[in-house]
């Protein structure tokens, strides 16, 4: 276990990040945990509105995830920033969730270092979509509820 205030190493890909904000949270503002609890009580799944012709299926694209997540997070004082970086281990997507009280959560998603610009852009969009869905705790829905029957076939 790392000492409080020291950079932590992300267990899945080994990147270091500092989870100790340099400012003291204001006790009169909402903490990130409380804000995310309010968000999760209100947020719905992203709508599957984009078509994947290869698999003949529908999926929730990045716009649908944004539409489901960002208005509710903003309402509760939660901000998500997504940017890219590069270190000795390769390229990555860095998602930072911030609250009014200076609390934050950092999440990384590995990105490919090879491929055409279109392939890299596609991987970045995929990572942004899935990373934001995980942070918000949402899934995707086509508006029907088959009680898990499709997954059990």
Please describe the structure with a list of short key phrases separated by commas or semicolons.
single chain; 153 residues; alpha+beta; three-stranded antiparallel beta sheet; two-stranded antiparallel sheet; 3 helices; 9 strands; flat; disordered N terminus
Average pLDDT, all residues: 80
What class would the helix/strand composition place it in?
Answer: alpha+beta
Largest sheet: 3 strands, antiparallel
**How many strand units?**
9
How would you sum up the global shape? flat
Helix-strand pattern, N to C? EEHEEEHEEEHE
Which residues form runs of ≥5 with pLDDT under 50?
Answer: 1-14, 145-149
Report the β-strand fraction as a percent range: 25-35%
> How far is it from the N-terminal to the C-terminal residue, by CA?
43 Å
